Amino acid sequence: MAISKLIPTLVLFALFSFDVGVAHPGLGFGWGSNNPIGGSFSSNLYPQFYQFSCPQADEIVMTVLEKAIAKEPRMAASLLRLHFHDCFVQGCDASILLDDSATIRSEKNAGPNKNSIRGFQVIDEIKAKLEQACPQTVSCADILALAARGSTILSGGPSWELPLGRRDSRTASLNGANTNIPAPNSTIQNLLTLFQRQGLNEEDLVSLSGGHTIGVARCTTFKQRLYNQNGNNQPDETLERSYYYGLRSICPPTGGDNNISPLDLASPSRFDNTYFKLLLWGKGLLTSDEVLLTGNVGRTGALVKAYAEDERLFFHQFAKSMVNMGNIQPLTGFNGEIRKSCHVIN
User: Fold this and answer.
1) Annotation-wise, does 19 bind a ligand?
2) Is residue 251 located within the same domain as residue 315?
3) Domain that holds residue 211
4) Is residue 245 situated within a structural domain?
5) Residues 206 and 313 in one domain
6) Is the pLDDT of residue 9 over 50?
7) Could you tell me which residues come within 8 angstroms of residue 102 by beta carbon, excluding any fewer than 6 positions away?
8) Per-residue pLDDT tens for 22-47?
9) What gap in Å lies between CA 251 and CA 260, rounded to an integer?
10) Does one domain contain both 141 and 264?
11) CA angle in degrees (0–180, nearest 5) for 141-144-146
12) 86 is in an annotated binding site
């Protein structure tokens, strides 16, 4: 008799629990997930986060990206860099998108970002289309993560199962952007320190640096290597000579700071492992690229050689490291907000 009364109660409880998960996916109820090969998810992020609340989210993102990258292939690298610069400052929370206001000192004005960070108009277009389809559902932080993955795929790189469910910050950190984002003239020890501060290791450092297989850099970021690398008015001796002379023609001793050069001169719009091959040939553009090979600290040099020899290995580790980076201090649950506009807090 007691058991017969208990069974309907359990059935009702199970149905109610499922309904809550469907109605409020952002609360962390509902679906579990299987970890991707070689990846690990933050406990509050999972790939199916928008399965019911906005199932077309990734399709909307990819549609906008396809058009933007077809028009300007460089945009893929810009969007990948936007996600990276966001995650390294108070976590993956879209703080980099916030404009100056009475309460916000924008990260866009930080040294590593000013006059160089770009792609905001593409993020805005994605956000507008998502707001039409699923109002106040998909966060700007998740849009950055989806755009980074989509840009990698559309450039010929790997895909990965992307954990979602990040929420947007109500704050930004200009100081954090100035201190936590690696500089182009970083030493290998400085790079390792900044990555370890974010919970990332040597494999993450080298594989994520491989994102430089696409995109360009401004003359001001590598001029020191050409004319005064060690304070003796001499070039960086690790630069291959013909490459060095080619860079001098792009980047004169005075002026031309905004002239650009591809980070991967062989295939600047294709995501591949050529970046690592170029490092072995003395044709890495930035000091922070070349020291991965020549810094003589830890296993970074061995990893450069391994990725140069095996593109599949690089792709596998890059995908894993993008998940790791995307897990840096996300806001979840009731923390933060879902911004209506990525540029301002609600």
Assistant:
1) no
2) yes
3) 182-325
4) yes
5) yes
6) no
7) none
8) 333 333 322 333 334 335 555 689 99
9) 8
10) no
11) 110
12) yes
Contacts of 175 (CB under 8 A, 6+ apart): none
pLDDT digits (tens, 9 = 90+) for 169-216: 999 999 999 999 999 999 999 999 999 999 999 999 999 999 999 999
User: Cα–Cα distance between 302 and 290 in angstroms, integer?
Assistant: 13
Burial of 118: CB neighbours in 10 Å, binned 0-12, 13-18, 19+: middle
Residues in the chain: 346
What is the 3-state secondary structure of 37-86?
A: CCCCCCCCCECCCCCCCCCCHHHHHHHHHHHHHHHCCCHHHHHHHHHHHH
Residues 6 or more apart whose Cβ sits within 8 Å of residue 247:
222, 225, 226, 239, 261, 285
Which pLDDT does position 43 carry in this prediction?
A: 61
Catalytic residue, candidates 24, 85, 316, 343:
85
303 and 220 assigned to the same domain: yes
Question: How much is the pLDDT for 35?
Answer: 36
- Is 89 annotated as belonging to a binding site? yes
Q: Does residue 24 have an active-site annotation?
A: no
Domain end, chosen from 153, 179, 205, is at 179
Q: Give residue 298's pLDDT band: very low, low, confident or very high (50, 70, 90).
A: confident
**91 is annotated as contributing to ligand binding:** yes
